[in-house]
Write a structure and sequence with these properties.
The complex is a heterodimer of chains A (487) and B (308). Chain A is of the alpha+beta class and 487 residues long. Chain A contains 10 helices and 29 strands. Chain A has 4 domains: 49 residues, no CATH class; 120 residues, no CATH class; 96 residues, Elongation Factor Tu (Ef-tu), domain 3 (Beta Barrel), CATH 2.40.30; 133 residues, no CATH class. Chain A is 17% helix and 30% strand. In chain A, the strands form 5 sheets. In chain A, strands 14-13-12-11-8-9-10-7-22-26-25 form an 11-stranded antiparallel sheet. In chain A, strands 5, 6, 23, 24, 27, 28 and 29 form a 7-stranded mixed sheet that branches. A 7-stranded mixed sheet of chain A has the order 17-18-16-15-19-20-21. In chain A, a hairpin with an 8-residue loop joins strand 1 and strand 2. Chain B folds into 2 domains: 144 residues, no CATH class; 163 residues, no CATH class. Chain B has 9 helices and 13 strands. In chain B, a hairpin with a 2-residue loop joins strand 12 and strand 13. The relative contact order of chain B is 0.11. The chains are: A alpha+beta (487), B alpha+beta (308). Chains A and B meet through strand 2, helix 1 and helix 9 of A and strand 1, strand 2, strand 3, helix 2 and strand 6 of B.
Chain lengths: 487, 308
């Protein structure tokens, strides 16, 4: 009998191992008289499971390098998770992970959003279209122009009325545009009685074929205020052309304080306060967001009692992209001459102070009853939990702003999400990732599907089906605990 | 302990595998049959200190034990000579109280003793709020005042369903947990699926769990398959003693009788302070001894779910 046993020399225990059995480590065995090394994870898994926690062991065979820096904690996003459709199943993944000793649960699902759209901010001073004008894609109405904001124009695209309230073509075109915008692709939109704009998240807008470079440094009046000192003594008069408020140095409070002499300049448009003019021209895509190509077209005749031959005049747009320099002749008419070296710097500085013009796209959606039902048997409790700051909502791991009031209506910057985070269903509706992260105890307390909770490792182990992406460093870690309101 | 020391120790021992688990917090140490998972809690600097010391200490443990292996496999008598190694001494100290009355060898406490030794090294080198060293289910705990650990208990070592959990507070005496049963890695003379014991140290818990699991028995019952230990593992410390290799279905009365036999032993150990509590399970039935252990088999469903 003893002859069948073999001596294992893998370690100093030197076990005698009988055929078909293993040594004291359970790792080396006697297979038909040969010493074989058995699959290590059998043993390791058991040891680990006994420790009441599971991690994949075979992932890397790398020695500990002595650092305590994590090899990368894992957060599972809802991208590719699948949806709760048709409305009653528990969310596809409910994942438990440990954060600072607190059991955390992340419920991930891909929500089908009929109530959703994007808010687009286009950094431009050019006039894109009147407020409430229809925005079209593929000829179909997909949204409208909304407010002008500082240095930018807002568009509201999508929404349930365009997605499902209009014709089939309208819904499809809307869904298509939203999907492309959310996934970071360029979309060309046409604004009724306005511009054609190519919009792409994180990229400069292209307005009527011209790529926007910079946001204006300020309105015309503000620009006067900022640069008055730099102009004083180098030029007699400055006009900063702006579709909103055009500024005039000699009349402006900043010029007055410096003691700039009156120049007898006359501006078209409506005077607001001294040195500040509204509506000097029509809105457009040229000088300072107006429709003018010749800046002199906004000036009337100089007052002969005040102006003098040789008076110097700088006209510049709020972005420094357009500028012209004039001197008055004997007839007090401006004649264009070359910009003197001494003024070049101030024009360059206006340009330098203008930030790059970008399009930014915020996804906005509402987590409806069915999506919330995938998280808990009592959907309204999820809403309350989000309200009470016990549950953190993320969209593809990106932070969201949850709109106050009822429901879970949130906005998220699509450029902070992994690529191609969005999908669609032919309804048409957008499929967007959404994750709810909260303490396991809180999850159980509001009727969560605790029996569906599975350890993170069960997800992570299926490496081939899961794509690991690097967390963006400017996003807060979704599992990070934060001060929470006491219930 | 300097970085260099740990590295040198590791070079002396090519077998040992040491790595931080992917969660970035727990350390996994393996050498031959010793498989540890440990975790320390405290400031990052103190944790790092503790982990380095644990690695350095771990590097020589198996060689130390194997140097005295023949001695450690012998039955312990009341007049046994003290071995040389620190871990071996912990083993003997843990089994000595049983010498004479029960058959036991120092090997009955090897897993717990290794856990105690590594934990001891960590705690003496670093200022930690909490720490644990889990040696294949035999666990040594450290708790600074005011701290606590939640431990879970499983029904059978080959299954992972949680029977219940117990919270061990710093004010409790228990700092060691061990589980023994015939389905586990070591041979058992009894038929318990699992006996989980809470004691002051992991080595004490290990020895006690082995002894109590041996006592959960139905001698000469036809449904129990037993084989001489040496036929399974020629160098087993149990020699020709019959070890359990299979247990057929038992009647409720038989289960009750076997558990009662184990509980009698556990009660005796509890009275003299060798254990703080024990939970004995056999074919779905569980018997609890000592107050701490009652939570371990709590079957309230939300408890089970919350930690699943």
């Amino acid at each position: 009998m003893a002859d069948d046993a073999i001596r294992c020399d893998a370690c100093p225990v030197l076990c005698y191992i009988k055929p078909g059995r293993t040594g004291s480590c359970d790792r080396y065995g006697n297979h038909d008289g040969k010493l074989v090394r058995l699959d290590p994870h059998v043993v390791l898994d058991r040891a680990v499971e006994r420790g009441d926690s599971v991690v994949p062991f075979l992932e890397r065979n790398q020695e500990w390098d002595g650092t305590l820096v994590s090899h990368g904690e894992t957060f599972v996003t809802a991208i590719g998770a699948g949806t709760t459709y048709p409305d009653y199943k528990p969310a596809p993944f409910i994942i438990a992970s440990q954060v600072k000793g607190v059991d955390m649960v992340t419920v991930v699902t891909e929500g089908i959003f009929s109530y959703c759209g994007v808010k687009v901010k286009i950094d431009t001073d050019r006039h894109l279209g009147d407020e409430c004008s229809t925005v079209r894609s593929q000829g179909e109405a997909i949204g409208h122009v909304t407010t002008s904001e500082y240095g930018s124009q807002m568009l509201s695209l999508g929404g349930v009325r365009h997605l499902t309230g209009g014709s089939r073509q309208e819904g499809v075109a809307t869904c298509d545009a939203l999907l492309n915008l959310c996934n970071g692709r360029a979309v060309e939109v046409e604004i009724d009685d306005g511009a054609r704009v190519v919009v792409q998240a994180g990229k400069p807008p292209v307005v009527d074929g011209v790529q926007e470079e910079r946001m204006r440094v300020g309105c015309g009046s503000a620009t006067i205020g900022m640069f008055a000192k730099q102009w004083f003594g180098k030029v007699d008069e400055v006009v900063v052309v702006d579709d909103h408020i055009t500024g005039v140095l000699s009349e402006h409070q900043a010029g007055k304080l410096l003691g700039v002499a009156e120049t007898g300049i006359k501006l078209k448009g409506r005077r607001s306060t001294p040195g500040r003019y509204f509506q000097v021209a029509e809105p457009g895509t040229s000088w300072g967001g107006t429709n003018i190509d010749d800046p002199l077209s906004i000036l009337g005749k100089f007052n002969a009692k005040k102006a003098w031959p040789g008076l110097s005049l700088l006209m510049v747009s709020t972005t420094g992209e357009h500028y012209a320099y004039f001197e008055l002749g004997e007839d007090l008419k401006p004649r264009k001459t070359e910009l003197p070296e001494t003024l070049r710097e101030s024009v360059a500085r206006i340009k330098e102070n203008c930030e790059p013009a970008l399009c930014t796209v915020l996804f906005m959606g509402g987590a409806g009853g069915s999506l919330r039902a995938g998280v808990t048997e009592n959907p309204v409790r999820l809403t309350h939990s989000v309200r009470d700051a016990l549950t953190r909502v993320t969209c593809g791991g990106a932070p969201v702003y949850v709109w106050p009031g009822g429901g879970i209506t949130f906005m998220a910057d699509v450029s902070r999400m992994p690529q191609n985070a969005f999908g669609y269903v032919p309804t048409p509706a957008l499929v967007a990732p959404i994750e709810f992260t909260l303490k396991l105890a809180d999850y159980a307390a509001f009727g969560g599907y605790v029996e569906q909770v599975r350890p993170l490792s069960s997800i992570v182990e299926k490496q081939d089906q899961r794509k690991r992406v690097i967390m963006r460093t400017d996003n807060p870690w979704p599992l990070e605990t934060r001060p929470v309101k006491k219930k | 302990m300097a970085v260099g020391d740990a590295t040198r120790e590791k070079e002396m021992n090519e077998r040992a595998q040491i790595r931080l688990l992917p969660d970035g917090r727990r350390l996994h140490l393996n050498d031959g049959p010793i498989d540890l998972i440990l975790e320390a809690f405290g400031t990052p600097g103190e944790i790092q200190k503790a982990y380095r010391v644990a690695c350095a200490r771990f590097a020589t443990v198996l060689d130390e034990l194997c140097g005295e292996l023949a001695y450690l496999r012998q039955a312990c008598s009341a007049h046994a000579e003290w071995p040389h190694g620190k871990v071996a001494r912990r083993m003997l100290a843990a089994v000595m109280p049983y010498a004479g009355e029960y058959f036991i060898t120092p090997m009955a406490a090897v897993a717990g003793a290794v856990a105690d030794e590594i934990l001891g090294a960590m705690v003496s080198a670093a200022d930690l709020s909490r720490a644990y060293v889990n040696d294949g289910g035999d666990i040594a705990l450290h708790l600074a005042p005011g701290e606590e650990f939640v431990v879970g208990m499983i029904e059978r070592p080959d299954r992972t369903s949680l029977l219940g959990t117990a919270t061990i507070y710093s004010s409790d005496a228990a700092r060691g947990i061990a589980t023994s049963g015939w389905r586990g890695r070591s041979f058992s003379l009894g038929i318990a699926d699992a006996v989980t014991v809470l004691s002051d140290r992991a080595s004490a818990a290990d020895a006690a769990a082995t002894t109590i699991a041996n006592a959960v028995d139905l001698p000469r019952h036809p449904a129990v398959v037993r084989l001489p230990a040496c036929e399974l593992a020629p160098d087993s410390d149990l020699g020709e003693r019959l070890v359990t290799q299979g247990v057929g279905e038992l009647s409720v009365c038989e289960i009750d009788r076997a558990l009662a036999s184990g509980a009698t032993t556990a009660d005796a150990l509890l009275r003299i302070g060798l254990i703080r509590g024990a939970a004995l399970s056999l074919q779905g039935e569980t018997r609890v001894v000592g107050e701490v252990a009652t939570q371990l088999v709590s079957t309230r469903s939300e408890r089970r779910l919350a930690h699943a």
